[in-house]
Amino acid sequence: MAADKENAPHAREPAPLAPLPDHRNVITGWWQELWRRHAHITTPLRQRGLTCDIEFGLSAYIVRVSLSDDSYLIISPPQEPPSDRPPGDPEGWIVTRERESERSSLFERIYDSAPPAYPSRAPQPEARHGGSAGPLIAAIDQHLDRLGLLPDSVPSRAERNVLADAPSLHGSKAPVAPESANHGPVYTYGDALLALTDRLNGTESYADAAALMHQILDPVNGLLERLDEFFEPAAEKAKDSEEDDGFDLSYDLADAAAEVRTLTQALDTAEARMRTLTPLAPTPQAPSSAAHAPSLPPRALPTAPPRHTR
Q: Model confidence over 258-280: pLDDT tens digits?
């Protein structure tokens, strides 16, 4: 039934972003640049209805997230000793939930992927994720979901599990089949992306086009985020060879991961901008008398190479 389809988890439209913070720095160039550098953190949280801001901590900029129980999250790069990496791209993240009031105080550490501050300390389990945003957002999701602090518009964990089991881009679960004995390599993920491209070419709705772009640009589960997470371990794998070319390759792959993150940040608002575009007005019908007028000869169509080549 139509109503069932509309209420199904996979039919849920992306939630509107939480508003920007309300202070005068928002219109300044330096704050907007900091906001852009942290978009891979703030955008997925704003998609969950959480209000974010950028502030200066002890020695570096942090993301502050307001919660409904008057507590807040601090998402921070290492502060002591300070990180020498650029804002938004630290070697790791530390997330704490805090509250300071006359009635009660609170401090709890939710996530820590930063290197240990002292060599004698063992790294936290999250340290293997480094500065990746995906595991950080997943940890915040799980913690706030358990506390009941995620806004009501955010899918429940059960719904997110359904989304995780949903069909792939081309309509069915894609088996991992890197090679076929009779036909050579099977490009499962490339074919899935081609199918998504075909759907984008065929849609006449900007809202539908934005929904398709969401699968690429979503900063938590989108294709670009997954590419970032793919290149980082690939770089580590190349480095494990301990050969000179392995080290060179690891740097190239690490650079590729950084370029993907830059591309993700540059396209932060592309989906929302696509969604707000105005459809073209329909072409007016010609008068009925024009039906008997001689038609113009058709224009010659330009030749073009095949769309998909291998």
A: 888 888 888 888 888 888 888 76
CA-to-CA separations, 118 to 62, 79, 125, in angstroms, rounded: 21, 13, 16
Q: How far apart are CA 121 and CA 119, in angstroms?
A: 5
Query: Cβ distance 73 to 97 under 8 Å?
Result: yes
pLDDT value at residue 187: 67
Cα 248 from Cα 250, distance rounded (Å): 5
pTM value? 0.49
Nearest to 134, CA basis, from 111, 117, 162: 111
Residues 84-100 pLDDT 10s = 888 999 999 999 999 98
- Identify each DSSP E strand in 117-249 by its residue range: 179-180, 184-185
- CA–chain centroid gap for 262, Å, is 12
Question: Cα–Cα distance between 299 and 310 in angstroms, integer?
Answer: 31
Q: Which tokens hold the place of 55?
A: 């502030």
